[in-house]
Specification:
Structural class: alpha/beta
Oligomer: single chain
Helix content: 25-40%
Distance between the termini: 72 Å
Number of strands: 10
Length: 291
């Protein structure tokens, strides 16, 4: 009887843990608030890249209500932007930006939401399936940074006054977009100083597993880095996502970076990152003084 009771207890605990994992909810900063000025979102707009030849992609631009052309705005770029721009799912970036900017908990910031590139004449119905996504996001090197600096920022900058201050430029992404965000800043810390990665793919999809060693053996760069992952994230032939993100955090700590690592019990989903987004943005932009 005693052994049966113990077994039943363990089974109940396992069931509870299964239901508890990834049990994250959104707070008031992710909801529209009365009296808060509402920014506008333009798009989707179609863009054909020369850096990534023969590809097209969509992008949206969020412009806060407080933006004026006389003063350069900070800029934050979101890979897999089709996910981040939605206001009824986990991240709700336009809503969160409205609330935080209104309370001056982050600077006046224009957001650029970009889908993965696609080789073809029209975009796939499922934007996650842009067939150039892995090449653009998982590859090491400066190609995506060049795409942003030579193409996307000038494109948006024709209409809006964007800061050239690297401290006022941030990059963010989820999964393969998370490692892409890190790669952009790693390659060009003279242009981008703030990084946010949700469930980042720091694994051997296209060689990204080398980053912890590179971080340890390279003189520290002027970066502020936010990482989020969960203990139930992926484990496959490319690597173990929870372990890879823990290795990244350990390397950043060793190299004395300004970093924050939030490790929960979630899987390869957007729930934890979305619930943390307001607080992580406050942390990422803390102390910023506009030019």
């Amino acid at each position: 009887m005693k052994s049966f009771f113990c077994l039943a207890t363990l089974l109940l605990a396992a069931v509870h843990a299964t239901f508890a994992a990834d049990d994250y909810t959104l707070g008031p900063d992710s909801m529209p608030q009365a009296g808060v000025p509402t920014g506008r979102v333009e798009g989707p707009l179609l863009f054909k890249s020369q850096v990534f030849t023969n590809t097209l992609r969509e992008y949206w631009v969020y412009v806060p209500a407080q933006y004026t052309a006389e003063k350069p705005a900070c800029v934050m770029v979101f890979m897999d932007g089709h996910k981040y721009v939605k206001t009824n799912e986990e991240y709700r970036v336009p809503v969160v930006f409205d609330n935080l900017i209104a309370r001056k908990e982050m600077p006046v910031t224009i957001a650029i939401f970009i889908t993965p590139g696609h080789r073809g004449e029209e975009m796939p119905a499922d934007r996650w399936k842009g067939n150039n996504r892995s090449f653009e996001y998982d590859s090491l090197g400066d190609a995506y940074a060049r795409f942003l600096l030579d193409e996307m920022l000038p494109e948006v900058g024709r209409k809006y006054n964007l800061t050239k201050d690297p401290e006022g430029r941030a990059v963010c992404g989820v999964s393969s977009g998370g490692i892409c965000a890190f790669t952009v800043a790693w390659e060009r810390p003279d242009q981008f100083r703030k990084v946010m990665s949700h469930i980042g793919s720091f694994t051997n999809i296209r060689g990204g597993h080398v980053y912890p060693a590179l971080i340890r053996k390279t003189p520290p760069k002027s970066l502020r880095i936010f990482l989020q992952d969960g203990s139930n994230d992926l484990d496959n032939a490319h690597g173990n996502w929870p372990l890879s993100n823990q290795q990244m955090a350990a390397a950043l700590k060793f190299a004395k970076y300004d970093y924050r690592f939030e490790f929960g019990d979630g899987g390869h989903t957007h729930k934890h990152g979305g619930s943390l987004l307001p607080d992580s943005l406050r942390w990422l932009w803390r102390g910023y003084r506009a030019e």
